[in-house]
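HUMAN: Can I see a protein plus its fold?

ASSISTANT:
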Amino acid sequence: MTDCLETILKKVQEPPKSKKVQHPNAKNAVLFEAINLIIHMDCDPKLLVRACNQLGQFLQHKETNLRYLALESLCLLATSEFSHEAVKKHQETIVNALKVRLFCC
């Protein structure tokens, strides 16, 4: 299971193999489900930190929905003893993402 989740986290970094509009959406859906599983398992510190770093990148994404999903997942990650420090490293980015949300409304 861990190997499969690691593969998913690696493949996210690869350039898209398809130019279809829905390809990034499908890729992100698989990624967020993998991250949710990593959070639920809460057993591999390396996977938790990698998931946290990936979510940190989404905090700066132009799409509001991805920022929201990243914030929600980071809230869950912050409760884990293994990833608490990794989430803390993204604190400034999290605050900035929340400010963007406030100014959009």
About this structure: The CA atoms of residues 8 and 31 lie 7 Å apart. The chain has one domain: 2-11+19-104. The chain has a mean pLDDT of 85. Residues 2-11+19-104 form one domain.
